[in-house]
């Protein structure tokens, strides 16, 4: 039986740093740590194993804490698609809102700037307040 050791740093596997076999090599050069493999591939600038000429494949895993973000992104994307579809299908509703706002604003401007369109202004008749004749008792 072959002792499982990393072929780069010669350390054995641990819970924090497990060993992988990313290529078709066999025997004592089969296993490697993920960090050691990454450092080795960066220095060689290739994804091929020098011993067996097999291209090293990587599996990308999403951390469990970020799984819910995928759902949020999908829901936001679907919301955007639905909103875009509704806007393209019912384009006349926002258009009617814009046109009615423009017409109301134009009517307001016309009422304020053209003197003949203004409503008649009457002075307000204020009456003097009546004085209270209540007697106050002195104690």
TrEMBL record:
This is RING-type E3 ubiquitin transferase. It is a multi-pass membrane protein. It is found in: Membrane. It is an enzyme of class 2 (transferase). It comes from Steinernema hermaphroditum. GO terms for biological process: ERAD pathway. Pathway: Protein modification; protein ubiquitination. Residues 1-59 form the RING-CH-type domain. Its EC number is 2.3.2.27. Signal peptide: none annotated. Gene3D superfamilies: Zinc/RING finger domain, C3HC4 (zinc finger) (3.30.40.10). Its main location: membrane. It catalyses: S-ubiquitinyl-[E2 ubiquitin-conjugating enzyme]-L-cysteine + [acceptor protein]-L-lysine = [E2 ubiquitin-conjugating enzyme]-L-cysteine + N(6)-ubiquitinyl-[acceptor protein]-L-lysine. The lineage of its organism: Eukaryota, Metazoa, Ecdysozoa, Nematoda, Chromadorea. It comes from the Eukaryota.
């Amino acid at each position: 039986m072959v002792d499982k050791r990393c072929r780069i740093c010669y350390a054995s596997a641990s819970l924090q740093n497990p060993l992988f076999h990313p290529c078709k090599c066999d025997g004592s050069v089969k296993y490697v740590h993920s960090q050691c493999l990454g450092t080795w591939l960066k220095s060689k600038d290739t994804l091929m194993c020098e011993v067996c000429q097999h291209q090293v494949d990587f599996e990308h895993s999403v951390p469990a804490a970020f799984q819910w973000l995928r759902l949020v992104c999908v829901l936001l994307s679907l919301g955007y698609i639905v909103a875009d579809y509704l806007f393209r299908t019912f384009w006349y509703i926002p258009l009617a809102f814009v046109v009615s706002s423009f017409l109301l604003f134009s009517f307001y401007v016309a009422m304020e700037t053209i003197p003949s369109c203004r409503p008649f202004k009457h002075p307000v008749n204020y009456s003097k307040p009546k004085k209270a004749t209540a007697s106050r008792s002195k104690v």
